[in-house]
Amino acid sequence: MDWIVAPDHDGRALPDVLPSLLGAMGVAGFADTIGFPDCRTAGVLLIDGLGRDLLREHAADAPFMASLLTLPPLKAGFPTTTVTSITSLGTGLCAGEHGLVGYSFAEPSGGLLHPLSWATHGTVGDSAGSRRSLLDQWPPEQAQPTPTMLERAAAAGVDVRTAVPAEFKNTGLTRAAFRGAVFRGLHALGDLAAELLTALGADGPGLCYGYHGHLDLLGHMHGPGSLPWRLQLTLLDQLVATLAERLPPAAVLTVIADHGMVQVDPAEAVDADTDPALQAGVRLLGGEVRARHVYVEPGALTDVHSAWQETIGERGVVLTGEQAIDEGWFGPVVADSVRPRIGDVLAIMRDSGVIRSVVEPGESALRGHHGSLTSAEQLVPVLVLGG
Questions:
Q1: Any idea what DSSP says for residue 181?
Q2: How many folded domains does the chain comprise?
Q3: Is the dihedral of CA 287, 79, 369, 267 positive or negative?
Q4: Dihedral of CA 177/180/181/185: which sign?
Q5: Is residue 237 part of a domain?
Q6: Disulfide-capable partner of 122 in 15, 58, 126, 300 (CB 3.0 to 4.6 Å)?
Q7: Are the C-beta atoms of 236 and 192 separated by less than 8 Å?
Q8: What is the CATH number of the domain that holds 358?
Q9: What is the predicted pLDDT for the residue at 124?
């Protein structure tokens, strides 16, 4: 399985970004394992979906950001999906500890949690888009009870802010990953830039997290490398260049991503709902199309694992959840409360393969995806401005 870029825990992954920036600021109790310059204020701009390989491949469309590719890439972790990566960044923990283990995963009442909406995910036979909010029944602070990095930074006297789309206010994912900061709701690129520069220009110590998601959106819709995607990349390159020109002294801004992306062909997909071999013994199908959590009926683990392994074959890798835990895919520690959220069987795809489901008609038809452990999905850039 030489195509797999497995997570490791050497101090150069998404959970290490905020502790490293706080260490570079000289905040007691935090160490810089990434190598940021010393600074008074620090910011993170996360460009959703901008994998290191994609930036290299399309350097002509983003010459300024490509010129900053001087540090080794970071690893996103597993699975390479926004929910997991954002929470790893925000908590300084891998998925095995923070517990948001995928795009959708088993929740205590027996259904699937869809963390982006913090609602139960529909199952076969439900009406299209059928979801039920779990914000009251299973609050984010209960599902992810560890203090966030922003809460810890605020407790140490740091001015912490988030500059993210306004509709993210008080969402389940925001509460799980980034509670503890002053929330600054955004509407366009202009106020994203303004909020970052304002925070970075403070007397300090200050830390600001900013997010932009349109590159990921266009990658999903049209495919990474498509003309709309490349034009969006060029606009983001201009944004980063503008931030660099206006960066206050004694400030550091790092540009990172939560995962990369690969182009897929829906016509080449595995259909989990129409293949009887992939249905027998399965009670829930979670995760996303390139990294599936398969939850099995009691006593069916061996048969389900064998059936999925035979069906997927060389198009990916199928292993039990316990094997993935033992191999450290979810981090060096997996909490007892998190283990039931991990699939009994995991199926991850190589190349451009996907495992689609009729429950996810929109997701299954998209032209760009992520979640698996190819280098295109796992490796993300760490670009440093200032210092």
A1: S
A2: 2
A3: negative
A4: positive
A5: yes
A6: 126
A7: no
A8: 3.30.1360.180
A9: 45
